[in-house]
Design brief:
Elements (H helix, E strand, L loop, with lengths): L8 E4 L8 E4 L7 H5 L6 E5 L6 H9 L6 H6 L1 H6 L5 H11 L3 E4 L13 E4 L5 E8 L4 E4 L11 E5 L5 E5 L2 E4 L4 E6 L2 E3 L22 E4 H11 L2 E5 L1 H16 L1
Antiparallel strand pairs: 1-2, 3-14, 4-7, 4-10, 5-6, 5-8, 6-7, 8-9, 11-12, 11-13
Length: 251
């Protein structure tokens, strides 16, 4: 890669290999770009469009594909989380990392429906294994895609002592469409549990009309969209800065 040609080479033994290989010295670091990454005199902004690749953005801004790597040095989010996904890539990604089914309940299940138990729907007849729970959000996560009744049903499970447990489920959804957190006008809210003197003591409170549900998919989508606006070096200064950067690497 053109980016590494000024780093110089070192010999390095990878893994359990006894013989060393010649490889670019990626331990080298210079802070020239860091020094100007917050200086508006050197920078402008670019909004990454759907399908834009780093090399394409470099070509659009600078007339060459060779300066794509500057985007990663200038933008911490891009360097840490990667280039924003296209809509197709995003949908494929969230389905991969959220492949399960979530049963939502307002009941307190802290003492029952433990991880590893098998849950069966009394109406749907569907069943599956509990792989995790979110007690604050009232979520029981079932492994894989399981067709419980979407609008809710009573489900049952036999615990390790052989006792049958039941819980009323308000809805069953794909894990990617399940709640990640809730917000209101003040920001993220703690949904909490009813007090001992409330209408439903010891169980989860109703969300209320002013509370918005942010799903797992929406949460990840917001992060992906936040990566689209990036800082870039002004075209009139790019040649000078890149020259200084490469000169410092060769010292």
């Amino acid at each position: 890669m053109d980016f590494f040609k000024d780093f110089g080479d070192v010999t390095y033994s990878f893994g359990n290999n006894e013989l060393a290989s010649v490889t670019p010295d990626i331990s080298k670091y210079v802070d020239i770009v860091d020094q100007i990454k917050d200086d508006i005199a050197f920078l402008t902004y670019y909004n990454i469009k759907e399908g834009d690749r780093p090399d394409q953005v470099s070509l659009q801004i600078y007339g060459t594909t060779l300066y794509y790597w500057t985007f990663y040095l200038l933008n911490d989010k891009i360097r840490q989380q990667g280039w924003p996904l296209t809509n197709t890539e995003f949908q494929r990604y969230v389905k991969k990392i959220f492949p399960n089914t979530v049963l939502n309940t307002r009941e307190n299940v802290s003492t029952k429906f433990k991880v590893g138990q098998i849950v069966s729907g009394n109406t749907s007849g569907a069943s599956g294994k509990i792989i995790k729970r979110n007690l604050m959000l009232g979520q029981i996560v079932i492994e894989g895609e399981v067709n419980f009744t979407a609008g809710g049903e009573t489900v049952s499970s036999v615990n390790s002592q052989g006792v049958t447990e039941t819980v009323n489920v308000t809805s069953a959804v794909s894990e990617r469409l399940a709640a990640s957190y809730y917000t209101d006008t003040s920001g993220v809210v703690d949904v909490g549990v009813d007090s001992a003197n409330g209408a439903n003591p010891g169980n989860l409170l109703e969300r209320g009309a002013t509370v918005n549900e942010i799903t797992n998919e929406q949460s990840y989508y917001d992060v992906n969209e936040s990566l689209r606006q990036i800082k870039v070096i002004r075209p009139s200064l790019i040649t000078t800065l890149i020259g200084s950067y490469k000169k410092a690497l060769r010292v």
